[in-house]
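Worked Example 4.2. Consider the chain below.
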Amino acid sequence: MNNYLVFDWGGTFLKYAIIDKKANILEKDKIPTPQPTKDNEADRKVFFAAIDEIVAGYKESVDGIAVSMPGMIDIKRGYTMTAGWLRYLTGMYLVDYMSAKYGLRVAIQNDGKCAALAEYWKGSLSDVTNGAVMVLGTSVGGGIIINGQLYSGTHFSAGEYSFMFLDTKKLDSFESTWGSYGTKGLIREVCKITGDDPEKLDGIELFDRANVGEEAVLIGLKKYTDMLAVGLYNLNVLLDFDKIAVGGGISKQPLLMEYIKESIDEFDRNNILRGLDDYIPKPNVVVTKFNNDANLIGALFNYNSIYKEFGRFRKK
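Applying the procedure from the previous section yields the following structure tokens:
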């Protein structure tokens, strides 16, 4: 058959798709994510009741199940060390559990790492040896490719940019972390300038106003991309990438990418280290190809890297 049921479990939606071995998405849909309460066992039952219904509709027509999900994942053991917002899935041997439950091979991987795998396989990083993906979602996630391989780290936390600090003078404030500079961080920075209520402003309205040149919104946008530029510069100095691909829903806005590149250029021009050594690589930032589908496609790449059901992947 060579078709696979692929999940992207997020805090808002459980996305799922049927994808063939060439990464063609044949169909896809989503349902709301069961939200956590204080009863993890009950939450887990509700969650898998929803997954059971989806799997039942495709079990006879797929060869396996691939999962992208939040958290620190030990893919060799199929174990969820953490599970992000889906905390009721923490501490599970999820691959063993789902394989026994559904009678299919299962593979799981962190969502940011899946995005990096997708872009490396057939996306904006397909021509690089060393690269990274930064996903601007509710928080900031991503993945790192080193020497043509996904880098997970000793504790499977590599690519968790959210845990990095951009302002060490405010260690007691989440706003000091890179994780606070997802979409909510953009809205926060803009509202500091415009006076809008951040609970009432969404990304669509924000960019509608930015794209018609509302000055206060553009000032807030620039403050936001200036902070992103700091993180991107530090990441690039540390690992010296060919490219860093920016993804997430707001990355589709050309104005955002224009401002990110402007902030990086400004940071590069004003960098005091230029006076010591001009050979400091500037981040080469591009937009992701797969955007909101990257987690799905990367989960399939991860599945095949484990089981090798359809051979060695070839990049473009």
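Residues 186 and 224 are 6 Å apart (CA to CA). The first helix runs from residue 40 to 58. Compare this with Example 4.1 before moving on.
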